[in-house]
Here is the input.
Amino acid sequence: ILEKMENGGFDVAPDTVSYNTILSAIDESSFVSAKELYDESGNRKSYLSKHDDLMKIVVGILDSMEARGVSRDSITYYNAIMAFSDPNNALALLHMAFEDSDAFNVVSLIGASPSRLRGRAASGIIFVANSALS
Here is the structure.
């Protein structure tokens, strides 16, 4: 559905909510299960069988958002981080969130200058950091 939206197959282009919905539906266990779906003839049914790395898919979604000028927010990174049970992947995505100049925009805890962190849920930074730590 997302690819069809991105390629103009629908009358509406994907927005932050569209991408966040896709990211919220992804997790490692469903990813593995979806890759292993077969039809009655023994052929793989899942599009995910073409992809072997969940991290590449999640980062690809985030990159696609950036390339299309779609805002990434704290919910985007929360959903991306929650897709993983491996803490290394979660921390790598947390690092990406902190580097993302589009994701957050709050007053820095250290000084009065605005940082690059913006979010609508909780305080943004804490919301995303908690997801990486859980």
